[in-house]
């Protein structure tokens, strides 16, 4: 009987404890102006970007491109070369925007979307 009371008391105590868990961001999505993106010459490089729309006081960030990085222009999947050309055109449009998704553990870019 004492063992049962001890077990119930222990279980009740455990369930009364607040459950805390660290939230970990796996993919960070950053909205920014296309003019704030500097692409490398090939897929074997690092993208430098300013994580804001227009100008800001944020520091530049860098993340690597991989063979698995996806590129989108106006929601259509495109190859890297086409993306580079379209990025140059979209930079001139003040209404365009970009979304860079970064794998925070690997510091790699999973996708870049430009629209507008």
Short description:
The chain contains 2 helices and 8 strands; from the N terminus they run H-E-E-E-E-E-E-H-E-E. By secondary structure, it is of the alpha+beta class.
Question: How would the blueprint of this fold be written?
Answer:
Layout: H1 2-16, E1 27-32, E2 37-38, E3 46-49, E4 61-64, E5 70-73, E6 76-78, H2 80-90, E7 97-103, E8 108-115
Describe what you observe in this structure.
With 116 residues, the protein is of the alpha+beta class. Helix content is 22%, strand content 33%. It contains 2 helices and 8 strands; from the N terminus they run H-E-E-E-E-E-E-H-E-E. It has helices spanning 2-16, 80-90, and strands at residues 27-32, 37-38, 46-49, 61-64, 70-73, 76-78, 97-103, 108-115. The strands form 2 sheets. A 5-stranded mixed sheet has the order 1-7-8-5-6, covered by helices on one side. Strands 2-3-4 form a 3-stranded antiparallel sheet, with no helix packed on it. Strand 7 (97-103) and strand 8 form a beta hairpin. The protein starts with a helix and ends with a strand. The mean pLDDT is 86.
